[in-house]
């Protein structure tokens, strides 16, 4: 393994200091200096530029998800936009800009060469957009609406976590395919952004005492598609509002992640409401739609550059800010794609 | 309205005497004599021959489902095979044999002419088969497997309520499309029938102390499709066993029907497992597949007449036996399609 001599060989990284007991806290993380990781024969060594701060990382602290549970001392997992420092001959050459879901909160990460994809640099906009709109979150929002819910014009679509990295894309994509979109967030300020800048037809604040009634009033014809990023009690609130043959896109359960344990009960009304309303409730991976990525990215680029889709990003500076960013994320104190800039380009 | 003079004008019917307080009991029903119902201008008057005894009727006593909650004094709803006594000029002529989902436990029922379908009498077998295999339950089993779960050869399919009217068809259809089928019932005797006569690869008794372990052992590669007729705690047991991209067909929640109220919680692990396993969880109506009914019925007829699919029926005699049949159904003391013979052909 060789590291580009322009960069120091020291590797700053943020690891799990302890398993969170309840809501995640700064002391659950530790910023440490470690050797640059060794690269296996089939791996690329990456110099990370942007790293995501995502609910998935919090979920991994709670238990197994797509990956085994995160244990103490492990680097916090993250999607990254990075530069290849070194790799196998068949892999992307040094200097190539890539993205991978298997990065982390560190200056350097070694990942299988097959797990990185070269950035499609013909797409326009700032580099961080390859982490947001052109990355996992943007594609998740797009395919959740277009590929899973298969939203049609005139339908009513509800998005929870609607100002989040995935939700704000999902809501706008649903609007752009002709749906009437209702957003749920925990903040009047976020809701104002959604209505005034992102074209949501209506918004509801989940902290309102009249939340359930507000949501029902915002969806007088029922909910044709619910893009669910939060799970938990909100899913229980939405299920009875679903219209016949409605679709629930299970994209995240952030309301359930920031606790010591997953909840010991599921939403009341399930599966009975799925039966009597002929609901389709579906989780998915963006990789299920890999054949359509190129078309999706082209559309997202056109919408964003044409001013029809607004990308919300909240980029914090340096690995030292990552832990606080995670605390903010889980407390609802961030808007759009949350990321840290790990290094300059 | 005119009634065929071959039949008495008195109408015996079974009504809900009181809303069940817990498990359904004989005293919740009342057999009474009433006038033959008046037929509206767009309705047909039916003389019922066979009437189903179904979990859906028990669910309707608990709360609204596809239909409003059943109230005291109302005739117990049922699918029926019936003969048209009278109807509008554009409807099926008197003497036509029809089926409808909107019949009841009564000698005579008036239903919209658009709600009956003429029996496809080219299908072979006894008349009651139009209530079982060629009726709602058979089509539900078929389309749940073929149309919703889209079961493929070599997959592992679990069916709960596997000896029931829907389940025993679903399990055999899954076997016939090449899957390995695991049945769950509450009886070793039923399980023996499933394994020895219906070709299930394995069975599990839900009353066993080791039920969860037994099911896991029966599905060493995970569950690709779960045909769920019971909901409740069993769904909670199956969800963690689902394989990636598994499908859950939400067909019934019988475990939840025979109580005063629906349960106040859903299955633990939902929606988190739907997210991390990319599950598709789906309710449906057989009418969603109406374009394919003819093909389905032909295949079911061929399988049944060819001896590849065994139809289990439990036909009780007379409306006077309907209440006891419902009690048996909810207690697990029936096998296959449960029905009462209301009248001779």
UniProtKB/TrEMBL annotation, chains A, B:
Domain Enoyl reductase (ER) stretches: 24-340
InterPro entries (UniProt xref): ADH-like_C, ADH_N_2, ER, GroES-like_sf, MDR_fam, NAD(P)-bd_dom_sf
Keyword presence, Oxidoreductase: yes
CDD domains in the cross-refs: PGDH (cd05288)
Keyword check for Plastid: no
GO molecular function, one term: oxidoreductase activity, acting on the CH-CH group of donors, NAD or NADP as acceptor
Signal peptide positions on this chain: none
Keywords associated with the record: Oxidoreductase
One Pfam assignment: ADH_N_2
Name used for this protein in its record: Enoyl reductase (ER) domain-containing protein
Organism: Pseudofrankia asymbiotica
